[in-house]
Design a protein that fits this description.
The complex is a heterotrimer of chains A (642), B (215) and C (257).
Chain A lengths: L14 H8 L12 E5 L3 H13 L2 E5 L17 E2 L11 H11 L6 H21 L24 E2 L5 H19 L2 E4 L2 E9 L2 E9 L5 E5 L2 E4 L20 H8 L4 E2 L4 E7 L22 E5 L16 E2 L1 H5 L9 H13 L11 E4 L1 H7 L1 H19 L8 E10 L2 E2 L12 E3 L17 H23 L10 H17 L13 H15 L3 E2 L1 H21 L11 H25 L8 E2 L13 H4 L1 E6 L8 E6 L14
Parallel strand pairs in A: 1-2, 1-9, 2-5, 9-17, 18-19
Antiparallel strand pairs in A: 3-4, 6-7, 7-8, 10-16, 10-20, 11-15, 12-13, 12-14, 14-15, 20-21
Helix pairs in contact in A: 2-5, 2-11, 3-4, 4-11, 9-10, 13-14, 13-15, 14-15
Chain B lengths: L1 H7 L1 H26 L6 H12 L2 H30 L17 H4 L1 H19 L8 H10 L1 H28 L5 H30 L7
Helix pairs in contact in B: 1-2, 2-4, 2-8, 4-6, 6-8, 7-9, 8-9
Chain C lengths: L5 E10 L8 E11 L4 H14 L22 E2 L2 E2 L21 E5 L8 E3 L2 E2 L2 H8 L21 H11 L6 H5 L6 H13 L7 H14 L10 H5 L7 H16 L5
Parallel strand pairs in C: 1-5
Antiparallel strand pairs in C: 1-2, 3-4, 3-5, 6-7
Helix pairs in contact in C: 2-6, 3-5, 5-6, 5-8, 6-8
The chains are: A alpha/beta (642), B mainly alpha (215), C alpha+beta (257).
Chain lengths: 642, 215, 257
């Protein structure tokens, strides 16, 4: 597998300019001769669709919701970073670049991250021009806040709905192109397979979710903007339909999958409260600015929080990390919460939660000040749990939130399959082993608005592309395979429900296996055990799963089953990747790699690389490749929050 | 043509409703002023009526305009009602209104049609009347009667109901909705409903109860 | 420590194969539903039960389950998104109901929203309204610096109030006339309150109302039901603003037509 990242030459700050200058262009009059398929309408997919259509390409865009406005980017609350330095507090492109690469624990590419920081400013300008109602100062200028422990105020926001407003901006731009006829929008379509012709990505097979029909679509390039795979864990903050299927199909056609074990676990989520639970709800990290995290000193203490006296409370974060206290980074906070719960000190009905207490803050600043800051979060918490955080401490627990891993892409965002690009969360490129708060929105829009337009032209300008129609045998074969797979999924469904299990039964099993063994803290023994366990779950799925309904019809159970089937295969490379990376880094702790104080120890000597997995066949182990990371402009340093 | 497009659009039709509604409201205001002379005694009222009819052109113009305004208001109202009924409240097995006091808004078409019937009766009784009888006496004779008077009182309460939604609705359609003035607007809606009811329904009551015996 | 409370419910759910078929209510008995679960999680439990019984589960749209994507929605006992104010169906919790309750669950109904299956509807009419002009026509690249457009904070907040719309369709579902004025008004308000939307304000208002009327939505009769059920509490002040914008556009726009 050729893992040439195609990093342009020259000094870091000039690479993107150099690259744009040396890239091939497509004459405006010729662009209408090219068709591009874009899968997904989140920030990356919608912005790419709009931008490419504006440039003159013919775009076919696909989403699995009923409208392109509903992709899960919409749920991002906090904000979007940009190196505008409007607050005059010492921010710069280089600082945003440095913070991002350091936040990623030095497991991402310098050149990609620097470009991200560079275009961050254009994103804000673009979104303002679209009419995104960002928060403003009284004088009318854009307001900023500091976010996720950053030392500068560089986060732009629209209340707690920044993701929604940015997405609706991109959706507006996309809608305009749909109206003009440059984008053909396909809703309620799920990508079932990629079609590769003569070694290049030339189309996709979709399933029309309204009637189960399989459809062939051909194009000159395929762009995946299909988000992350956090739902492999069953419970996550992702939307119910978020899945790995599109990326996994690409992987099976030869696209390398990079760092699949890099999963971010967010510390402040509302805890699980029952087996029926379908998803976890995230609350903004900013809560930790004023809340104090604690558990009872005694294990299995079943008293009400108010009945536990001060000297029987363990403020473990403040004790362990005196200088950062409750504001330690996401991974440290998450890991410690799990540690406490594993030691039996967890609270709540399930024992899987820790307290986040605002009593002291309310005493100090008064209830109104705290309500002003967190009112909407308190409301949301009360709506879900029926307890008032002003009277009783909140209960929080970590949950899977974002996946830094994804399809391997080079500087042009192209995967190892020529003509197949991956944008946004579905690629691996910018966040290394951990993502900073308010950077996901930035990356999605950077990829879609400002990068793909340039790099796609370069691909078209420098590649011989023959005419390919969907009546070619590759398309027929791919469609046939998809049909077979659906048939196979439904094989138990003709006999009625007897000794069967449901899709969710298996998905929960898989989720638990991954959460317990491939979560925040991993070790060789557990991972090896999980790797043995996984095929059994997979076999159980194919043997016993019962899916009601038919294949050639609207069938939500079948949709879920297809996604879970892919998660079951995908889980394996997650575990393998975690096994191979014998260092602690970013958001995960490898128990064998710790300092004396039980802190994560990174191993730059052996693991300063991107791990890339190549498909070899269903019965064969995937092939492991490395893309070495070199740091010329920053010096990797160890984090310390003591 | 832009004007045709405007009148065909959903908002254009609503604007016609609001605009004709406003004119009818203004007419009610002038009507109330004229009728106030009843409470001053029959001579004042007769004098007012005679003065008014000494300008036949004005009366004629007013009547024609009113006819047009009423027809537009009723016509567009019916048109919107039938169009909206294609959707219909009955599309759910269970229908529950969340807004409190929605009676007036739900019954606009019925209160409106009732007022139309009243209008016909009223016009038949007072406009196309026997020219020989002085109007001041006719009022007392007709409205003092139990059935006639009761019908008028009911009609005016329906008018009040119609106005309690209509006045606010008219301003909302014109785009007048501002947190600073919304309280005032809803107070005014209530005030005008009650005011017109008291003033107009007071006339039959005045005669029926015998208060107006010395009229 | 709180003890998990459960309730037993009778569900009267609308089942319909597709828009061309006739639908009917089916009755299901569902026991031991945790009061901490959300309405959709309750439906999940029902669907697992139906699957185990070899029956076809109830189709319903849902995605983010945190009240922002706008995908979910049904009419519960005659109220869109159920009895709790300012709440989407996915954020409605079962503690709002009591044991022994019978719930009537119907899809959002409107001429412009054909039923796809059971509680699942087609809201693409909303997309077409936006496509007709619900945006600022600006291409990617070439935008001026964000701070060169000054917007007073209270204006930005008003625009944000309107922009919070999630496009769920509850306004249409609850409107006695099936009007889409709150949805359309929210988008037009957002853009006409901001200077970026000014150049196209006339053409936008005309085009979007045109598109709205063509989709077969009803006429607003100021019944205020939309505002009352809106999960994002979007005010009918936005409809007033829409009326103003449309009137201005119709009488003052410079286009010849």
């Amino acid at each position: 597998m050729d893992l040439n990242a195609n990093i342009p030459s020259g000094p870091l700050a000039e690479k993107w300019d150099n690259h744009r200058f040396s890239s091939k262009l497509v004459n405006p009059a010729n662009r209408r001769k090219f068709t591009v398929i874009i899968v997904g309408t989140g920030l990356a997919g919608a912005s790419a669709s709009a931008t490419l259509a504006e440039q003159g390409y013919n775009v076919s865009t696909f989403c699995l919701q009923d409208s392109p406005r509903r992709a899960h980017s919409i749920a991002a609350q906090g904000g979007i970073n940009a190196a505008k330095n409007y607050q005059n507090d010492g921010d710069s492109v280089f600082r945003l670049f440095y913070d991002t690469i350091k936040g990623g624990d030095f497991r991402s590419r310098e050149a990609n991250v620097y470009r991200l920081a560079q275009v961050s400013n254009n994103i804000i300008d673009q979104c303002v021009a679209q009419g995104v109602p960002f928060a403003r100062e009284y004088g009318g200028t854009l307001a900023n806040r500091s976010f996720g422990g950053a030392q500068v105020s560089r986060t732009f926001y629209a209340r707690g709905q920044t993701g929604q407003q940015l997405l609706l901006g991109a959706y507006g731009a996309l809608s305009r192109q749909i109206h003009s006829g440059k984008v053909k929008m396909y809703t309620r379509r799920e990508m079932m397979d990629l079609v590769v012709v003569d070694g290049k990505a030339r189309g996709i097979i979709t399933r029309n979710m309204k009637n189960g029909e399989l459809e062939k679509h051909h194009a000159d390039a395929v762009i995946l903007a299909t988000g992350g795979y956090g739902n492999a864990y069953f419970l996550s903050t992702n939307a119910m339909s978020s899945n790995v299927t599109a990326a996994w199909r690409a992987y099976k056609h030869g696209a390398g999958f990079a760092n699949p074990c890099f999963v971010q676990i967010h510390p402040t989520c509302i805890p699980v409260h029952g087996t029926y639970q379908s998803k976890l709800t995230l609350m903004s990290e900013s809560l930790r600015n004023d809340g104090r995290v604690w558990v009872p000193v005694k294990a299995k203490d079943e008293r009400k929080p108010a009945d536990i006296p001060e000297n029987e409370r363990d403020y473990y974060l403040e004790k362990k990390y005196p200088s950062f206290g409750n504001l330690v980074p996401r991974d440290v906070a998450s890991r410690n919460a799990k540690e406490q719960c594993d030691a039996g000190k967890g609270v709540g009905t399930t024992g899987l939660a820790v307290y986040l207490d605002f009593a002291d803050a309310i005493k100090r600043d008064g209830g109104n000040t705290i309500l002003k800051k967190y009112g909407n979060l308190f409301q949301m918490y009360e709506k879900i749990t029926d307890t008032d955080p002003q009277k009783e401490p909140m209960m929080i627990y970590p949950a899977v939130h974002y996946t830094m891993g994804g399809l391997w892409v080079d500087y042009n965002l192209m995967t190892t399959i020529p003509g197949l690009f991956a944008l946004g969360e579905s690629n691996f490129s910018d966040h290394g082993a951990n993502r900073l708060g308010a950077s996901a929105l930035m990356q999605g829009l950077a990829d879609g608005y400002f990068i793909i337009g340039n790099t796609l032209a370069n691909y078209f300008g420098s590649t011989e592309l023959g005419t390919v129609c969907s009546d070619r045998e590759e398309f027929g074969e791919a469609k046939h395979n998809v049909g077979d797979r659906i048939h196979k999924l439904l094989k138990n469904s003709y006999e009625g429900f007897k000794d069967h299990i449901t899709v969710d039964d298996i998905h929960k099993k898989l989720g638990l296996l991954l959460w317990d063994n491939c979560g925040m803290a991993r070790n060789k023994e557990d991972l090896s055990k999980a790797l043995e366990e996984l095929p059994k779950i997979r076999d159980e799925f194919w043997d016993r799963v019962y899916i009601p309904g038919k294949g050639n019809d609207l069938n939500q159970s079948l949709e879920r089953a297809g996604r879970v089937a892919d998660f079951l295969e995908f889980g394996e490379i997650m575990i393998r990747d975690a096994l191979t990376r014998e260092e602690s880094c970013g958001c995960h702790l490898r128990e064998e790699s710790q300092t004396k104080e039980h802190e994560a120890k990174r191993d730059d000597q052996n693991y300063s690389h991107v791990a890339v997995w190549e498909y070899q066949g269903d019965d064969k182990e995937p092939l492991f490749h490395k893309e070495e990371l070199t740091f010329e402009n920053v010096t990797p340093s160890q984090r310390s929050y003591k | 043509m832009w004007i045709v497009r405007f009148f065909q659009s959903s908002i254009g039709k609503k604007m016609i409703m609001a605009f004709t509604g406003m004119l009818l409201f203004l007419f009610l205001c002038t009507h109330v002023m004229g009728n106030s002379t009843i409470y001053l005694g029959s001579s004042h009222f007769q004098h007012y009526a005679d003065t008014l009819h000494s300008f036949p052109v004005i009366v004629y113009l007013f009547s024609i305009s009113l006819l047009i305004i009423v027809s537009l208001h009723v016509g567009f109202g019916l048109n919107l009602y039938f169009k909206n009924r294609e959707e219909g409240d009955s599309r759910y097995a269970v229908t529950k209104r969340v807004v409190e006091n929605s009676l007036a808004s739900r019954t606009m078409i019925f209160s409106g049609l009732f007022i139309l019937v009243f209008l016909l009766v009223h016009v038949a009784g007072f406009t196309f009347r026997d020219e020989h009888e002085p109007i001041s006496e006719l009022v007392k004779e007709l409205l003092g009667g139990f059935f006639y008077g009761s019908f008028y009182i009911i009609a005016f309460s329906v008018l009040g109901l119609h106005l309690s939604h209509g006045f606010w609705s008219m301003l909302q359609t014109f785009g007048v909705n501002h947190p600073r003035y919304n309280k005032l607007i809803s107070s005014l809606s209530l005030f005008f409903s009650v005011f017109f009811f008291l003033f107009f329904a007071g006339i039959p009551l005045y005669f029926m109860t015998g208060l107006g015996s010395s009229y | 420590m709180k003890i998990m409370a459960t309730i037993d419910l009778t569900l009267n759910i609308w089942r319909q194969k597709d828009n061309d078929s006739l639908g009917e209510f089916e009755i299901y008995q569902l026991n031991n539903i945790s009061t901490d679960s959300s309405f959709l999680e309750m439906l999940d439990v029902l669907n697992e039960k139906l699957t185990r019984e070899g029956k076809i589960p109830v189709a319903f749209d849902h995605d983010c389950r945190e009240g922002i994507c706008g995908m979910c929605g049904a009419v519960i006992d005659g109220v869109a998104h159920g009895p709790e104010k300012a709440t989407t169906l996915c954020q409605l919790h079962m503690r709002n109901f009591s044991t022994g309750d019978t719930l009537v669950i119907e899809p959002f109904r409107s001429r412009a929203f054909p039923v796809k299956r059971d509680l699942m509807i087609d809201r693409s009419a909303f997309d077409r309204i936006i496509q007709s002009g619900g945006y600022v026509s600006t291409n990617t690249g070439g935008a001026i610096d964000g701070n060169s457009i000054l917007i007073p904070s209270d204006k930005a907040e008003l625009a944000m109030d309107a922009a919070a719309c999630i496009g769920c369709g509850a306004c249409v579902a609850s409107c006695p006339n099936g009007a889409a004025m709150l949805f359309t008004g929210a988008k037009i308000s957002q853009l006409c309150l901001l200077p970026q939307g000014a150049p196209e304000r006339h053409s936008r208002a005309l085009a979007m109302i045109d598109a709205m009327d063509k989709e077969g939505f009803g006429n607003c009769s100021n019944a205020k039901e939309c505002e009352a059920v809106c999960p994002k509490s979007i005010s009918i002040r936005n409809i007033a603003r829409l009326n103003r914008e449309y009137a201005k556009a119709a009488f003052l726009s410079e286009t010849k037509k």
